[in-house]
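S2.1 Query sequence (histidine kinase)
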Amino acid sequence: TEELLRKSEMHSAVGQLAAGIAHEIRNPLTALKGFLQLLHVEGDKNETYVKIMSSEFVRIEQIINELLMLSKPHELNFHRANLAVILNDVLMLLETQAIMNQIHINSELANPLPFVECVENQIKQVLINMLKNAMEAMPSGGEITFTVRRHDQNHVLIRIQDQGIGIPEEQLRRIGEPFYTTKDKGTGLGIMVSKKIIEDHGGRFQISSIVGVGTTIDIILPTLP
Ligand code: ADP
Ligand code: MG
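Output structure tokens follow.
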């Protein structure tokens, strides 16, 4: 247990450091991006360079935004939120992307949905990360089943099930390590950050997967009366 405790303390210290660095980098990055846009307007000789630079900026921004999610939870604003509102926002946000990828999101939502004590944007971010992963695992389309139901007296289960490529055993062990990705344009931060957020909310995060069948993400969160 002592070893485990030390490990989790170290993890959160590393998380805080990462979030701190991300925060410091954000301002100079915004300035650089602004000047790049100005250059782009003034002369198009270097079109290709500007394009490459822009896409690299987008990449750095993605990494920074994900690392910023690791900010100290007690500095964040936890409040009572209706899960129905959160889910609705997330599903609306991803609707177009799903349609474009020939993916149908089949939601099976308990009625009524419970209230949770949370940082709304963080929970949204987790669900977006997981639904994006699910879509990215189904290059030729298919169905995502999104189930939300009571887990027990004071917990809710959020399950995201895809029919994607699945994750081989030896990869499954590494998933959630910072920067571990199998994608060309991946950051390898989505699962690590999402797991951390769920744990900061007193919840549990589990992945199970069968190659060629699909992947299931289970998120269990405490509910409010
Ligand atoms: P990223 O999506 O940027 O690669 P993540 O942390 O979100 O980073 O995911 C890490 C890796 O886990 C992915 O690169 C992929 O190999 C695997 N993975 C995550 N979700 C799924 C899924 N639903 N189906 C198959 N593989 C997945
Ligand atoms: Mg991802």
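The mean pLDDT is 89. The two ends are 32 Å apart (CA to CA).
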